[in-house]
């Protein structure tokens, strides 16, 4: 009975999360813009964590999101996924489906679920909560497990997996979701070099298939080598564009200065300046303080 209750909770929690990620996405076949921010401010309990972000991400582009700890990267991912509602401004997705892989630290692995249960949640958008998985689905699932090197792990309980194996299982679920926009929050944390290489290959294949991938990363060398575009954030946009133009020592210095100067207790910012779109160098130091506002 306990097992059943856990299992139902596991499915419901995951399905609700996946459902929130799949809401309301208008098709826009005329444009190559997949994602558009307009003066987006996100935060918690009335305090902004990401300020006045504007810009666009094109379809099929691999973008790294970089910034110091606490700079707002995960907050931005949650805003795009629809888990966090904007304090002001908008975030619009212009193509189909979205898949979101949160940081591993946010996942509860104590549910008595197996690898196959986790991965098959990727079918939810097609099959619904109680929908039956067909023979064809099972073949797809097997192919995805094979692609991430987890053939034979189907019945393994989640709490018996290593960090890297868990990440591979989550990538398999993401593959089954067949999403147009894929959000990955620090997907290479605590995984070995070989797993990083394997998962990077998958990510590049997704982009080659026309999927847009946004990936939070801390390893600048890896970003320089594998990601065409980078968005550098320090609670507000510092720069967004080609990786070589964004990851300059000057931009990194500005990001550091801005982040260090930020007032953690400030309320949400009423400054309605929009920061310019796409490839953008934003204002220099944070001269403008946040207005305390409740
Ligand atoms: N649930 C929450 N409630 C209140 N404040 C939060 C919450 N989550 C994050 N914050 C705050 O928002 C700010 C941005 O946090 P966020 O997690 O987005 O940073 P990050 O860039 O992803 O950091 P890291 O690299 O450490 O993962 C931080 O000051 C953080 O303390």
Automatic annotation (TrEMBL):
Gene Ontology molecular function: ATP binding; ATP hydrolysis activity
Pfam families (UniProt xref): ABC_tran
Domain of life from the UniProt record: Bacteria
GO biological process: zinc ion transport
Location of region: Disordered: 273-294
The keyword Nucleotide-binding is annotated on this UniProt entry: yes
Keywords noted in UniProt: ATP-binding, Ion transport, Nucleotide-binding, Transport, Zinc, Zinc transport
Residues annotated as domain ABC transporter: 35-260
Family under the similarity heading: Belongs to the ABC transporter superfamily.
UniProt protein name: ABC transporter
């Amino acid at each position: 009975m306990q097992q059943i209750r856990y299992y139902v909770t596991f499915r419901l929690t995951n399905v609700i999360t996946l459902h929130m990620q799949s809401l309301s996405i208008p098709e826009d076949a005329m444009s190559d813009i997949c994602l558009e921010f307009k003066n987006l401010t996100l935060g918690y309990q009335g305090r902004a964590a990401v300020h006045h972000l504007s810009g666009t991400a094109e379809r099929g582009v691999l973008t790294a999101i970089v910034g110091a700890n606490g700079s707002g990267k995960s907050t931005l991912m949650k805003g795009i996924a629809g888990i966090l509602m904007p304090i002001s401004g908008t975030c619009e997705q212009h193509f189909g489906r979205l898949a979101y892989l949160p940081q591993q630290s946010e996942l509860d692995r104590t549910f008595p679920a197996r690898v196959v249960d986790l991965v098959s949640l990727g079918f939810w958008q097609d099959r619904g909560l109680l929908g039956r998985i067909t023979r064809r689905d099972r073949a797809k699932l097997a192919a995805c497990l094979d692609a991430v090197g987890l053939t034979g792990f189907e019945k393994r309980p989640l709490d018996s997996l290593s960090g890297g194996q868990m990440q591979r299982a989550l990538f398999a679920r993401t593959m089954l979701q067949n999403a147009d926009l894929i959000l990955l929050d620090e997907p290479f944390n605590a995984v070995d070099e070989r797993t990083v290489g394997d998962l990077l290959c998958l990510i590049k294949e997704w982009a080659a298939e026309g999927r847009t991938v946004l990936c939070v990363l801390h390893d600048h060398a890896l970003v320089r080598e594998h990601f065409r575009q980078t968005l550098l954030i320090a609670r507000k946009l510092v720069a967004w564009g080609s990786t070589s133009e964004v990851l300059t020592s000057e931009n990194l210095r500005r990001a550091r200065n801005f982040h260090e100067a930020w007032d953690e207790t400030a309320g949400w910012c009423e400054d309605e300046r929009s920061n310019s779109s796409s490839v953008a160098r934003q204002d220099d130091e944070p001269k403008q303080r946040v207005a305390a506002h409740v």
